[in-house]
Amino acid sequence: MKKNGKNRKPIKYVLTAILIAGLVVFSLLLVSCGLFEETPETESMTETESQNIVFESPTDGLYSYEDMKSDMLALSEKYNGIFTSRSIGTSADGRDIMLGILGNENASRRIIVTAAMHGREYLNSYVVMLQIEEALASYYTASFDGTAYSDLFDAVAIYIIPMCNPDGVSISQYGIDAVRDPSLRAEIEKIYESDKGYGFTSSPLNKYLSYWKANAQGVDINRNFDSDWQKYVGMGVPCFMDYKGKSPVSAPETKALVDLVNQPVTTLASVCIHSSGSIIYQNDPALAQLMKNLTDYTVSGDKGNLPSFSEWCYYTLGIPAVTIETGSGYCPFSFDKYVGIYDDINLILPTLAAFYQ
Q1: Pair (158, 303) in one structural domain
Q2: Is residue 181 included in any domain, yes or no?
Q3: Are 12 and 101 part of one and the same domain?
Q4: Alpha helices in the chain, H assignment, sequence order
């Protein structure tokens, strides 16, 4: 019996060692399967999001007003000191008209870049925001034509309004449910009936609204500036496009842009990004040629003195201005077209800053 008892102790240790080894192997298998990696996954996700604030935003194939505003605030927090964002006014339906300042916000000279003046042209907002993030990410490492970004944007700040018409964008993307104010919603439904009467549409309401260019009041804000406003005919009543409003600068979105330009800062140039046609509408010849060299788009003769933002800047204020029509086809573009547009206008921000040093 004693002999047998002496043999049990080593066996017990062997069994224990085998059990411990088995548990270790099992744990390693679980780790390799990712079951115990909750903290590393969270850290990795956070790191990815912090590197790609704008790129990570669209979750439904649309870059919305909420995406844009959130990204503007996130970029200004991450790149504090070289990027500032703020609201310059409120749209008819209560959305902020966001301005981003790339570079030295106290610079005495600036260039103004606008996008999504028309609701259905919202893909340009995403492309412009990607350009902002790219410039910020390489602010202290990149150069253009031999000049460091940090020097370019310190001397000439870029004022960017990526979504001039947030109500129009929201209506084009999400239809009548995007309109917050009941009175505005009712007015848009009346405009729909009116536009059916004019033969502009026979589509259901939300399909019709996907082509919406105007603001939430049915005013085309790019026909509401005080530049030969009286001579422009367009539509005589609120419409999904081409209604100039009851008076110049009557739309809150237009007023916000006018107030911004009228600030006591020297505006060197204005570039207004629209869609479509891969065309540059020439006001200022030198600026048009610069944009042609960048995009390889066709330069077209200017449209004359329309009550648009570019024409108001050029003819009324003497600011060099052009309108770029990105892409080809009918708006709204499918989301995947952003890649081609991004390639077309890539480096537009340092190109402008370098040209006007």
Answers
A1: yes
A2: no
A3: no
A4: 2-32, 38-51, 65-78, 123-137, 149-155, 166-174, 182-197, 205-209, 252-261, 285-295, 309-311, 338-344, 348-355
Q: Are residues 143 and 271 in the same domain?
A: yes
Half-sphere exposure of 271 (CA within 13 A, CB side): 31
Considering the domain boundaries, does residue 22 fall inside one?
Answer: yes
- Count other C-beta atoms under 10 Å from residue 340's C-beta: 14
Distance of CA 194 to the CA centre of its chain: 31
Q: What tens digit of pLDDT does each residue of 100-120 get?
A: 999 999 999 999 999 999 999
Nearest to 132 by CA among 346, 354, 356, 326: 346
The number of folded domains in the chain is 2
Query: What gap in Å lies between CA 68 and CA 271, rounded to an integer?
Result: 19
Q: Predicted confidence band at 58 (pLDDT cuts at 50, 70, 90)?
A: confident
**Both tokens assigned to 122:** 């919202």
Place of tokens 């340092």: 350
Instruction: Write out the residue range of the structural domain in which residue 67 sits.
Output: 63-169+251-355
* Structural domain includes residue 81: yes
Contact criterion met (CB below 8 Å) for 357 and 152? yes
Predicted local distance difference test score (pLDDT) of residue 23: 44
Q: Rounded to an integer, what distance in angstroms lies between the CA atom of residue 288 and that of residue 269?
A: 11
Which of residues 49 and 287 earns the better pLDDT score? 287
**Same domain (yes/no): 265, 165:** yes
pLDDT in tens, 164-200: 999 999 999 999 999 999 999 999 999 999 999 999 9
pLDDT band at 57 (very low <50, low <70, confident <90, very high): confident
Q: What is the DSSP string of 154-208?
A: HHSEEEEES-S-HHHHHHHHHGGGG--SHHHHHHHHHHHHHHHHTTS--S-HHHH
Is residue 49's pLDDT more than 50?
no
Q: Kindly state whether residue 213 falls inside one of the protein's structural domains.
A: no
Q: Are strands 147-148 and 109-115 parallel, antiparallel or unpaired?
A: unpaired
Q: Is the pLDDT of residue 220 over 70?
A: yes
Cβ atoms of 338 and 127 within 8 Å: the answer is yes
